[in-house]
């Protein structure tokens, strides 16, 4: 290779190695190893399940037709189909016959092939190409990986890294200088997997991304603009994602659900819809993995999956307002607006007003079957994941979440409202279970609790707790005083319940790990000059090193200019 390796640092992650220049020319963030490892785990499971679905389809077809050859007849209404992924000559219109939402049909364009082609992957914003290289080198059964970037320096770095990683990378990975939005629009339904990991918001890429994925394909999407998604700039969030965020303890999960609702909105414009398989909040970003399907009839269920959120400004009570509902009569189903309002003008618990946010995705954000498969795969290949400890901890916590409970409560916030001492999580969980409801933790917040118990039951449990652990008298107009002034309807039972600890907690499995090193977070955008104000992002040692290098370069340039001027003067 015609370059001086002394000018570069070799960075190894997994089986891939990349060359990074000392200057901040191409973006790289070590922290995203968690993101990349999780994506590889999901991609491995996707390839496995894609193969299983294809084999199940062929088996079903062969049994029906009594033939072991390729099947060429038209699919029936609600068959689980696998779309052709790489055959661009077929232009038949997708089947759009009615199917129920629970069956999640995968439509097919053209014939059902006896042999499934390796999946094609598009990394729309590749930078150094590390993610694409890891996909190609570590994921068995993967086909072509297309890495795009709109920056010439990044594409050159990516091509350099492809060559540096040898024949496997050269045969599978290709890098292009292109605007990801234009490329995805001009390659509709060509990629089995589309990966979006932008610096900031992915909103401008979503419309083209949902069109570029094949039916039944996977869209992986990251959003790092958490200040916007978590309510710091609600009006900006609404302009980008079409939802208004609320600043509650559950704001990070709400960010996930806002992103899912936004992707669904873009997909619906093309008679498509999404099915989330995994949604994760880690470090400083949210990451969702969704499958994209085409069905005009199943798309009608979208309003049933979206809700507005009413958050009391005085206490922690929140309530969801579904956008739509269905009415069934005989075999017909009617889609109607949701009943409203679900809350009175003032909070029934503390008497304060409500803030309204949303709409958010209120359907499940994980597929527990997928989560179980991903976790099993990760544990069986722990040496293949540099961030094994972190991603296995996150997946373990997700596997124990209640799947159909949007958002969560904070026990500390409940106690702060009442100005009381906090019961242990085990005692509170036991009281909820003994009252006949379910409760679990959440991967988003170690103090968060998901429960299908209504808010009046939660506050009754807290009233019973305060009776046994009295508090000082508070002004009568305080939310806590108003709540405690009411007698509990439910008499809470705080006896320890068997299910008060999850399996992971009972086995003392680590679920929330500290950052492995200092300054483990977002990094400076590529091309920006590092200055002393970036110490909080990069650390004092790294910044001082860069500043010293910059000073040395400046001195070398000055000396060169002075020598040149002296030579001219002498001549």
From TrEMBL:
Q: What does it catalyze?
A: guanosine(26) in tRNA + 2 S-adenosyl-L-methionine = N(2)-dimethylguanosine(26) in tRNA + 2 S-adenosyl-L-homocysteine + 2 H(+)
Q: What does this protein do?
A: Dimethylates a single guanine residue at position 26 of most tRNAs using S-adenosyl-L-methionine as donor of the methyl groups.
Enzyme Commission code(s) on record: 2.1.1.216
Q: Which Gene3D superfamilies match?
A: N2,N2-dimethylguanosine tRNA methyltransferase, C-terminal domain (3.30.56.70), Vaccinia Virus protein VP39 (3.40.50.150)
> Keywords in UniProt for this one?
Metal-binding, Methyltransferase, RNA-binding, S-adenosyl-L-methionine, Transferase, tRNA processing, tRNA-binding, Zinc
Please provide an example of a Pfam family that matches this protein in its UniProt record. Answer: TRM
Region spans: Disordered? 57-106, 549-571
**Origin: domain of life:** Eukaryota
Q: Give the Basic and acidic residues compositional bias ranges.
A: 71-96, 551-565
Q: Which GO terms describe its cellular component?
A: nucleus
Name a GO molecular-function annotation: tRNA binding
Q: Which residues form a coiled coil?
A: none
Name of this chain's protein: tRNA (guanine(26)-N(2))-dimethyltransferase
Q: Which NCBIfam families match?
A: TRM1
What family is reported? Belongs to the class I-like SAM-binding methyltransferase superfamily. Trm1 family.
Please provide the Gene Ontology terms (biological process) for this protein.
tRNA N2-guanine methylation
């Amino acid at each position: 290779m015609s370059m001086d390796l002394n000018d570069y640092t070799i960075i190894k992650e997994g089986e891939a190695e990349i060359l990074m220049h000392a200057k901040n020319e191409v973006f790289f963030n070590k922290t995203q190893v968690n993101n990349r490892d999780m994506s590889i785990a999901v991609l491995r499971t996707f390839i496995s399940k894609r193969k299983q679905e294809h084999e199940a389809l062929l088996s079903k077809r062969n049994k029906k037709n009594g033939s072991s050859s390729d099947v060429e007849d038209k699919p029936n209404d609600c068959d689980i189909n696998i779309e052709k992924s790489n055959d661009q000559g077929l232009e038949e219109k997708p089947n759009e016959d009615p199917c129920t939402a629970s069956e999640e049909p995968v439509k097919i364009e053209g014939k059902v092939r006896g042999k499934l082609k390796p999946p094609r992957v598009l990394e729309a914003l590749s930078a150094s190409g590390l993610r694409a290289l890891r996909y190609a080198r570590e994921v068995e059964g993967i086909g072509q990986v297309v890495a795009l970037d709109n920056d010439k320096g990044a594409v050159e770095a990516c091509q350099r890294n492809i060559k540096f990683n040898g024949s496997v990378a050269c045969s599978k990975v290709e890098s292009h200088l292109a605007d990801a939005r234009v490329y995805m629009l001009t390659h509709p339904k060509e990629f089995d997997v589309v990966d979006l990991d932008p610096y900031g918001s992915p909103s401008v890429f979503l419309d083209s991304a949902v069109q570029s994925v094949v039916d039944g394909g996977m869209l992986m999407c990251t959003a790092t603009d958490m200040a916007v998604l978590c309510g710091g700039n609600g009006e900006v969030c609404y302009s980008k994602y079409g939802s208004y965020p609320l600043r509650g303890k559950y704001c990070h999960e709400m960010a996930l659900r806002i992103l899912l609702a936004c992707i669904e909105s873009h997909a619906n414009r093309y008679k498509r819809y999404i099915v989330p398989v995994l949604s994760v909040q880690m470090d400083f970003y949210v990451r969702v993995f969704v499958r994209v399907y085409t069905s005009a009839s199943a798309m009608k269920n979208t309003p049933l999956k979206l809700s507005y959120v009413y958050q009391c400004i005085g206490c922690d009570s929140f309530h969801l307002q579904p956008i739509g509902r269905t009415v069934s009569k005989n075999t017909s189903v009617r889609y109607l607006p949701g009943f409203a309002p679900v809350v009175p003008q003032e909070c029934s618990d503390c008497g304060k007003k409500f803030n309204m946010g949303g709409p958010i995705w209120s359907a499940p954000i994980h597929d527990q079957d997928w989560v179980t498969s991903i976790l099993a795969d990760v544990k069986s290949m722990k040496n293949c994941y540099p961030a094994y400890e972190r991603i296995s901890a996150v997946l373990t916590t997700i596997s124990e979440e209640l799947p159909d409970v949007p958002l969560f409560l904070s026990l500390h916030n409940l106690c702060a409202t009442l100005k009381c001492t906090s019961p242990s999580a085990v005692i509170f969980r036991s009281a909820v279970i003994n009252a006949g409801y379910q409760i679990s933790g959440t991967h988003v917040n170690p103090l968060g609790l998901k429960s299908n118990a209504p808010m009046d039951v939660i506050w009754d449990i807290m009233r019973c707790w305060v009776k046994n652990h009295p508090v000082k008298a508070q002004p009568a107009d305080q939310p806590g005083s108003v709540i405690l002034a009411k007698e509990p309807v439910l008499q809470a039972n705080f006896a320890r319940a068997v299910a008060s600890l999850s399996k992971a907690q009972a086995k003392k499995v680590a679920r929330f790990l500290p950052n492995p090193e200092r300054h483990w977070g977002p990094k400076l955008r590529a091309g920006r000059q590092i200055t002393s104000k970036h110490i909080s992002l990069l650390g004092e040692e790294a910044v001082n090193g860069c500043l010293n290098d910059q000073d040395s370069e400046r001195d070398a340039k000055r000396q060169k200019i002075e020598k040149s001027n002296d030579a001219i003067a002498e001549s």
